[in-house]
TrEMBL record:
Residue ranges annotated for the M23ase beta-sheet core domain, each copy included: 51-109
Name of the featured protein: Metalloendopeptidase-like membrane protein
Signal sequence, renumbered to the chain: 1-21
CDD domains, per the entry: M23_peptidase
Organism field: Owenweeksia hongkongensis (strain DSM 17368 / CIP 108786 / JCM 12287 / NRRL B-23963 / UST20020801)
Pfam families: Peptidase_M23
Source organism, top-level taxon: Bacteria
GO function terms (MF aspect): metalloendopeptidase activity
PANTHER family according to UniProt: M23 FAMILY METALLOPEPTIDASE (PTHR21666:SF285), PEPTIDASE-RELATED (PTHR21666)
Length: 570
C-alpha cells in the first residue's frame, strides 16, 4: 500500500473536519426557479420543534412561478396534504441525490391529471404516490410545478431540499453550488452565561454585545467573565443575505476556550429522525418562556443530534482555578463570512467549600430509563430517552376548569422539553354518563385551554400520548364541526360561479375528515387548512346545467359529524 505523506494525512483530517463543498457536485443542479435566489430560510435554521430541512426561496411575494427540475431524473414521490409541505414533489437523480419541492400551488398538467385521477379513485384530497421510474421521467429544466403557498406555509415561497437518495439524509442545498449572494457576516446579538453544579444548571444570565466593526463583536462593559462554577455559554445569532431583510440561520458555530474546541456545530447534513433534538440544541426554557432562541454551546447527555463535529469534547469547561482563558466564538455563514466574539473567562471557585445543597425532595426522572409516576387519578409512563437529561419532577393538582371533568394535573412544566411521546393517563373526577369515547385529554397553559392531546377510554382512565409537559385535564367533545358555505346557500343559482367554498372548523378535537357529493357522486374539494377553507373548481366538475343536490359531511377527531344538504342550480 502506498504510504500517505503526513501532509496528505493532515489534508484528509482537514477535509473530514471542515464541511466541504468539494464533497458534493458543484455544477450538476440548475436553479429550480427562473429568478435570482433570495432566501427567506436556510438549512439547519432553528425552527419550532425542528431544524429547517431545506432552503426557502422567495418567489416575489407571488404564487405561480415556474418550478423546474434541477437535473435529469424521475418523479419518485408526489404528496398532497393540507399540512406540512402541502403539494410536494420529489425527483430522484442518477447522481445519488433527490431534490424536493414543497408548498407548490399545483403540479404540471401531466402530473396534475394523474393526481386528480388518484384522488377520485381514493375519494380523498390527501394522497401520496410513489410512481415507478418510467412513469414521469424528467429532463433538467423541465417545468414540473408552479410555486405556491400550500400546506404549513406562511407566505408564497418554494421550499427546496436535497437528500441523499439512499440514506434519505437531508443535505444543505447551498453545498451544491447554487448562486446565492451573501456578502454580510452573521449577526451575533447576545451571550448567555450558564453555570452548573455537577452537570445541573444552577444559573444563567445574559450579557449584551457591542458590534466593533464588520463581524467583530465584544462584550459591553467588562470583557472578563468570572464564574464560580463550571460554566458554558450560548449565543443568539442569525445571518442576513444580500438583498433581503430575512434573518436566516447560520452555517457553523465554533467555540474555543483556551486551546480546546468545546463546541462545533455545522449545518451540513442530518436525518429527519433527529430533527426534534432542536429542543436540546437550544435553550428550550428560554424559548418557552420568553421566545428567545438561544443556541446553547454545551451538550445535554441525551442530545443525539449528529451535526456536531467534536461531540466527545463538547462537555462543560474543565478549567484550572484562577487562570484566565481566552474564549473565541466564531460564527460563519455558508458563503464563508465570519463573525467573532472574543472575551476572557476566569474560574474562581468559592474559597470556602460550600455545604452541599440538599437534594430536592422530589421524584427524579432518569433520561436513560423508563420512568413511572402515579398520583391519585394521574399517571405517567415516560420511555427511555424521552428526556435530554435527568429532571426533578414537580407535580401539582390544580382546580378544574369550568368544562373539565377532572382536576388540572400539572407535571413538570412547559419549559422542560420532551423528545419522545410518552403516555398520560387521567381518571375523570366527575362522573360522566355519556359516550366515553368522546372524552379526551386537553393541555392548558397558565390555566387556559391550549392543545387537544387526543385520548381513548381504557379501564376507567383517559389515555393519551404527548410530547410536552405542563397542565392536563379530561374534557369531552360532543360538539360537531361548524360548516358554512362561503358563496351560496340552499337554493342558490351557482351557474357561472368559478368556485364553491365552505369554511369548516371544530372547536376542541379538530377536523378529522370531510367529504362532498353532488347527486351522490364524490367530488374533489381541496383543503386549505390554515384558512379553514375547502373549495372546488366548478368548471372542473364538468356538470351539465340543471338542479343538483350537494351533500357535505364533516367529522371531528372525536367522531362528531355535521351533515348538510344544498339544492343548487348549476
Ligand atoms: Zn422551508
Amino acid at each position: 500500500m502506498k504510504q500517505r505523506s503526513p501532509l496528505a494525512f493532515f489534508a484528509l483530517f482537514l477535509f473530514s473536519f471542515l464541511a466541504n463543498a468539494q464533497d458534493y457536485p458543484q455544477d450538476e443542479f440548475i436553479s429550480p426557479l427562473e429568478m435570482p435566489l433570495f432566501l427567506s430560510g436556510t438549512f439547519g435554521e432553528l425552527r419550532t420543534n425542528h431544524f429547517h430541512a431545506g432552503i426557502d426561496i422567495k418567489t416575489g411575494g407571488r404564487e405561480g412561478q415556474r418550478v423546474l427540475a434541477v437535473a435529469d431524473g424521475f418523479v419518485s414521490r408526489i404528496k398532497v396534504s393540507p399540512y406540512g409541505y402541502g403539494n410536494a414533489l420529489y425527483i430522484v437523480h442518477p447522481n445519488g441525490y433527490t431534490s424536493v419541492y414543497g408548498h407548490l400551488q399545483r403540479f404540471n398538467d401531466t402530473i396534475q391529471a394523474f393526481i386528480r385521477e388518484e384522488q377520485k379513485r381514493q375519494k380523498s384530497f390527501e394522497v401520496e404516490l410513489f410512481p415507478l421510474a418510467k412513469v414521469f421521467p424528467v429532463k433538467q429544466g423541465d417545468l414540473v410545478a408552479l410555486s405556491g403557498n400550500s400546506g404549513g406555509s406562511g407566505g408564497p415561497h418554494l421550499h427546496f431540499e436535497i437528500r441523499d437518495t439512499r440514506t434519505e439524509k437531508i443535505i444543505n442545498p447551498l453545498l451544491f453550488g447554487f448562486d446565492v449572494k451573501d456578502g454580510r457576516s452573521p449577526d451575533i446579538y447576545n451571550l448567555e452565561v450558564y453555570e452548573f453544579d455537577k452537570e445541573e444548571l444552577v444559573s444563567s444570565y445574559t450579557r449584551s454585545l457591542l458590534r466593533q466593526g464588520d463581524g467583530v463583536y465584544s462584550l459591553t462593559g467588562n470583557s472578563l467573565i468570572e464564574v464560580s462554577n463550571p460554566a458554558s455559554f450560548g449565543i443568539t445569532t442569525t445571518d442576513r443575505l444580500d438583498g433581503v431583510p430575512n434573518k436566516n440561520g447560520v452555517y457553523s458555530i465554533r467555540m474555543i476556550i483556551g486551546e480546546e474546541v468545546y463546541y462545533h456545530f455545522v449545518a451540513e447534513t442530518f436525518a429527519f429522525a433527529e430533527t426534534r433534538y432542536i429542543n436540546s440544541h437550544i435553550d428550550f426554557a428560554q424559548k418557552a418562556c420568553c421566545r428567545r432562541t438561544i443556541n446553547k454551546m454545551y451538550l445535554e447527555p441525551n442530545n443525539q443530534f449528529s451535526a456536531y463535529r467534536v461531540k466527545e469534547r463538547m462537555k462543560l469547561t474543565d478549567l484550572v482555578a484562577d487562570s484566565i482563558y481566552p474564549v473565541n466564538i466564531e460564527v460563519s455563514d455558508r458563503a464563508g463570512n465570519v463573525s467573532t466574539l472574543n472575551f476572557e473567562l476566569k474560574y474562581s471557585p468559592p474559597e470556602v467549600e460550600l455545604a452541599e445543597a440538599p437534594e430536592p425532595d422530589l421524584p427524579k426522572f432518569n433520561y436513560a430509563q423508563t420512568n413511572f409516576f402515579k398520583k391519585d387519578n394521574f399517571q405517567v409512563v415516560l420511555p427511555e430517552g424521552a428526556l435530554y437529561s435527568d429532571i426533578y419532577v414537580q407535580y401539582e393538582k390544580k382546580a378544574a376548569c369550568s368544562e373539565c371533568l377532572s382536576f388540572i394535573h400539572e407535571i413538570a412544566t412547559r419549559e422542560v422539553p420532551v423528545q419522545k411521546y410518552y403516555t398520560l393517563k387521567i381518571k375523570p373526577d366527575a362522573e360522566y354518563h355519556g359516550d366515553k369515547s368522546k372524552l379526551f385529554i386537553a393541555s392548558f397553559k397558565d390555566g387556559k385551554l391550549d392543545d387537544y392531546e387526543g385520548g381513548r377510554w381504557e379501564n376507567g382512565f383517559v389515555v393519551a400520548r404527548t410530547r410536552q409537559f405542563g397542565e392536563f385535564a379530561v374534557m369531552v367533545d360532543t360538539v360537531p364541526p361548524s360548516v358554512s358555505p362561503v358563496n351560496f346557500r340552499d337554493g342558490s343559482n351557482v351557474h357561472g360561479a368559478s368556485r364553491l367554498s365552505f369554511i369548516i372548523s371544530d372547536k376542541l378535537s379538530g377536523i378529522d375528515d370531510y367529504s362532498v357529493t353532488i347527486d351522490g357522486e364524490w367530488v374533489l374539494f381541496e383543503y386549505d387548512a390554515k384558512n379553514r377553507l375547502i373549495y372546488t373548481d366548478v368548471r372542473a366538475l364538468n356538470l351539465e346545467d340543471g338542479e343538483r343536490v350537494l351533500r357535505i359531511s364533516v367529522s371531528d377527531d372525536k367522531g362528531n359529524v355535521t351533515e348538510k344538504t344544498y339544492h343548487l342550480i348549476f
